[in-house]
Design brief:
about 550 residues; 16-stranded antiparallel barrel
Length: about 550
């Protein structure tokens, strides 16, 4: 019997144990109350299967007569005893004998009308039943956290939030001697809009993420933030647009499962899973597709890893009139990590990023549009371009001349001997194995330039690995050299040389903690174009950062 049923029986036993009143008016009231209680008890016992429907109907008929029949009381009490014994025996075998003894109603001689005999319920038995009910109620209350002001539903306790905010002042400076944008940009295409006039402006970046722990091994993440749907490598929102509202976009939406310690599976729009630098992937890039990461622990110090992924890059619905193919990325990286006794960490990885169908294909004749969708949807600057449209067709469409199959080697060393101060060194070397000068000439009909397909970056950082509190500090210096077709220019760092490839130069920066999870960062980025017309860009960034 559940808690409500047991309480009902207890209240009934307590009620019929009350002394009878001598006064006629009170006697009638008491009898009527008893009549209703017996009817309720019979109904409940019938619902629980203790009484058959036929017996219940007979007892209800007796109880609803003009005078309360002692037989009805006898029958109800007998049935109540059966139910009470079943309930109590499941909780306390000792109480079972007490209830059975107290509930047994011996046969009595007929009594005068209006007189009701009730059994005597010992006080000890009533107290024992009270304790049984109290313990059961308290157990249920504890399990369901009744009355706990800090209690939350179970699903809500498995959800967490995080976020970040950055306020940036940026000053772009263009030294004397740069070519004009009209001399730099291909016909009908704007890669740069300014190369001679200094520009000072303010930007913000705001993000809010939610993580839902579905099970011990699986979670789902959603994140929204500033940005737009036209570019893939920025979350910045430039201020000064007549106080118009900002756009919020969904920047992450993925599920991740870790069925084993050595296996990690992800699917959706997810953060960068690769051991890499922003020479290849801007920090705002979120990959779309599926990733599997195998990371067996070889020993206490050594761990290996193998990461593979498949990511659609540009969907193309090929048909008889659209002959361009869908663009995608297939990637794999193998590597190892070693951690010393003083928590120093060394990581090494070799990756191969195989972009499929990102190169452009020219339409054969004027007026033909079979390969229009092979054109690049987004680019920064630096990659070698080719015409997709035939001469005379509008609008002009440009595609990438080269295929991109990037072989990348990345190494990181975090020396923690002077913890909390660390010395961190990162080196990254990349080569585009997909550039084929003869193939480009045959496909485009234009003379392809000599290969410019190598890139490297080296960064030295001294300080705490992550700014978390007041007084934390970090300083770094970076050198980058990225030839025109070393990497896909649409996806690499948007700040160095204001984005893209065909650039070399230095980055010097420092950060200082102002408060818990609040810090100031200053960076100076100075770059020059490697090949072609002169284009030098110097950028000063001052950031106020916070996160939670």
């Amino acid at each position: 019997m559940n808690i409500k049923g047991l309480i009902s029986v207890f209240l009934m036993v307590g009620f019929i144990s009350a002394p009878a009143f001598a006064e006629e008016k009170e006697e009638k009231t008491q009898i009527e109350a008893m009549r209703q209680s017996i009817v309720n008890l019979i109904t409940q016992l019938t619902q629980k299967g203790v009484l058959s429907k036929e017996d219940a109907d007979k007892m209800l008929k007796d109880a609803s007569g003009p005078a309360l029949n002692a037989a009805a009381v006898q029958s109800a009490l007998a049935a109540s005893a059966v139910a009470t014994q079943s309930s109590v025996s499941a909780i306390n075998p000792v109480a079972q004998s007490s209830v059975a003894a107290a509930s047994a109603v011996p046969a009595e001689e007929p009594v005068a009308p209006g007189v009701v005999r009730v059994p005597y319920i010992p006080e000890s038995m009533k107290m024992e039943m009270t304790e049984i009910i109290k313990h059961e109620v308290l157990a249920q209350a504890k399990g369901e956290r009744w009355g706990d002001p800090g209690a939350m539903p179970d699903w809500l306790s498995r959800i967490s939030f995080d976020g970040e905010f950055r306020l940036r002042n940026q000053d772009d400076r263009f030294p004397v001697g740069n070519v004009l944008p009209s001399q730099f940009n291909p016909q009908g295409l704007t890669l740069i809009s300014n190369s001679t006039n200094n520009h000072d402006y303010t930007r913000i970046l705001a993000r809010l993420g939610m993580k839902a722990q579905v099970s011990d091994s699986t979670f789902v993440v959603f994140r929204i933030g500033t940005g737009n749907t036209n570019t893939v490598s920025t979350g910045n929102q430039t201020m000064g647009n007549e106080y118009s509202n900002y756009t919020a976009v969904l920047t992450r939406a993925y599920v991740q499962s870790n069925p084993f310690n050595w296996l990690e599976l992800s699917g959706g729009k997810m953060p960068n899973p690769w051991l890499s630098t922003d020479m290849l992937w801007d920090g705002n890039i979120n990959f779309e597709g599926v990733t599997a990461k195998f990371k067996p622990q070889l020993s206490e110090e050594w761990m290996s890893f193998l990461t593979v992924g498949a990511y659609p890059y540009q969907d193309v619905n090929s048909s008889d009139t659209i002959m361009a193919n869908p663009k995608s990325l297939y990637a794999a990286q193998a590597g190892a990590a070693w951690r010393s006794m003083d928590s120093s960490l060394a990581q090494f990885g070799i990756a191969y990023y195989d972009f499929q169908n990102v190169e452009g294909t020219p339409n054969a004749t004027q007026g033909s549009h079979f390969y229009d969708q092979s054109a690049a949807l987004y680019m920064q600057k630096g990659n070698t371009l080719m015409y997709v449209n035939a001469v005379g067709d509008t609008p002009l469409l440009y595609g990438l001349a080269s295929k991109f199959k990037e072989l990348d080697v990345t190494a990181k060393w975090d020396w923690a001997a002077f913890d909390p101060i660390h010395v961190m060194l990162t080196a990254d070397f990349v080569k585009n194995m997909g550039y084929d000068q003869n193939e480009i000439t045959l496909r485009t009909g234009l003379a392809a330039p000599s290969p410019r397909v190598d890139g490297h970056a080296i960064m030295l950082t001294v300080g705490v690995p992550k700014i978390q509190r007041y007084g934390d500090w970090q300083a770094n210096v970076t050198y980058k050299y990225i030839e025109s077709d070393a990497v896909l220019d649409a996806l690499n760092d948007q700040d160095f040389h204001l984005g893209g490839t065909n650039a070399k130069g230095f980055i010097v920066g420092a950060s200082y903690g102002l408060d818990k999870n609040t810090w100031l960062t200053t960076r100076w980025l100075s770059s020059d174009q490697i090949d072609g017309a002169p284009l030098a860009i110097d950028t000063l960034q001052v950031d106020l950062n916070t996160r939670f």
